[in-house]
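Possible regression after last week's pipeline update?

I re-ran a chain I had predicted before the update to compare outputs. Posting the input and the new output here so someone can diff against the archived version. Not blocking, just want to make sure nothing changed silently.
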Amino acid sequence: IAVPALMERLGESKTKTAQIQIRQLGNVLDMYRLDVGSYPAESNGLEALVAEPVGVDRWNGPYLQNPEALTDPWGRPYVYRFPGENGAYDLYSLGSDGAEGGEGEAADVTSW
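New output (post-update):
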């Protein structure tokens, strides 16, 4: 009984961690936008927060020191889409299963 309960708590913890990281990345994306004038192009992705993209004026980074911050708690890169379908940009994790949708720990964790 204790093992399933522990695993459930661990899953909840990873989901909460992803929610916090997405909020923090959103703040960093906003700083980037203030400097550059727009969010990173989808072709540059979130890597634009770590290394200066070619042809981007007024880049004042790195905005993140640790490239591992671009990885969700399940070890996969966060998904970034600009322009977004749900806001100025979409930033999300596909959860524990790495697939769209899902429930519980497997549910997507989104910025919207």
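Follow-up from reviewer: compared with the archived run. The helical segments are 2-36. Marking as no regression found.
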